[in-house]
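Many introductory courses stop at the sequence. We go one step further.
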Amino acid sequence: MKRNQKIHTMALAALLIAVGVVIPAVMPIKVVIPPASFTLASHVAIMLAMFVSPFVAIIVALGTALGFLLGGFPLAVVLRAVSHVVWAGLGAWYLKQHPTLFTGLKKSILFIAAIALLHAICEVLIILPLYFGHALPEANYTQGFMYSIFLLVGVGTVVHSSVDFALSLAVWKVLVRSGSVRSISHVKDVAFRA
């Protein structure tokens, strides 16, 4: 990678981390049903990073998690943010192998569904020890595991992740027109063709 491309990659990663920390703090569209919380577009920065490279996706996921920790967010939120490293890294790796994936609608939908499911599994797994250790003060233990963890965190994350990914594709379609962004990214085209 040329020196200019490295600088562009580093600058884009830093901007995405900043956006990823700011969105949850200022976005007015939030749904909080403990132990779950859903903020519209809160995953967009990480998903945009996936289109660049696996390294950028992992760095942005770690950077946003650190931002949540330093911002004083509850432990459950910070740990859920740390779990983003897994699905973002794997998703970015897959996109590196299949950079034209978003030119087909069916393949795009399957990828979004797979990432959403992996995202939900990671968040459920990271929250389980806190739930069973009764370390989630905001959790509604009277509603039980199926409601609190499976439905709210699991199914809720699948829906939230899918919506955020659709937003990410719309944003990426515009961003990738920039020559500097295009030159450092694996995914260069978002144009659904049958």
